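Help needed: design a sequence for this.
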């Protein structure tokens, strides 16, 4: 199992990459005037591909929930970009599994299947952030073993 473990530096790059993904995908959710356009585009994509489920008309409550979600995720992403740690990665992994579960539940209750595009990334980053991480000592020992012998 230790061979499959992430080196600590690679794990932190994964935490940071997941944060960049979150920032790029969710910043439009934080701003009402941007989210309205994004929501319309999601509806158009769902219609184009005749995806099952409904994308309900945008109303003030839905907008509020989207803006709150977007605001929190943007701040959380900035924290992980600025100072990624194993703890933040593990916590983000938990959040991703919770998000995925909520998204899957929503689709089973009639929400548009377009949500599952987001779910895929939640699951991928959730698994990666719960992947084993080698201890620093083991990572250093492997690096030394892999280095060519000096002449």
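Sure. Designed sequence:
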């Amino acid at each position: 199992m230790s061979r499959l473990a992430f080196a600590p530096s690679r794990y932190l790059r994964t935490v940071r990459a997941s944060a960049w993904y979150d920032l790029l995908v969710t910043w439009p959710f934080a701003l009402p005037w941007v989210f309205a356009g994004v929501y319309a585009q999601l509806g158009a994509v769902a219609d184009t591909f005749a995806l099952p489920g409904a994308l309900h008309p945008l109303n003030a409550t839905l907008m509020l929930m989207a803006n709150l979600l977007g605001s929190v995720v943007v701040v959380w992403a900035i924290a992980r970009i600025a100072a990624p740690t194993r703890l933040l990665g593990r916590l983000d992994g938990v959040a991703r599994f919770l998000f995925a579960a909520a998204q899957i539940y929503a689709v089973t209750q009639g929400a548009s299947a377009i949500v599952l595009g987001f779910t895929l990334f939640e699951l991928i980053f959730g698994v990666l952030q719960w992947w084993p991480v080698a201890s620093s000592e083991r990572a250093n020992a492997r690096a030394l073993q892999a280095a060519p012998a000096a002449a």
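Residues 2-140 form one domain.
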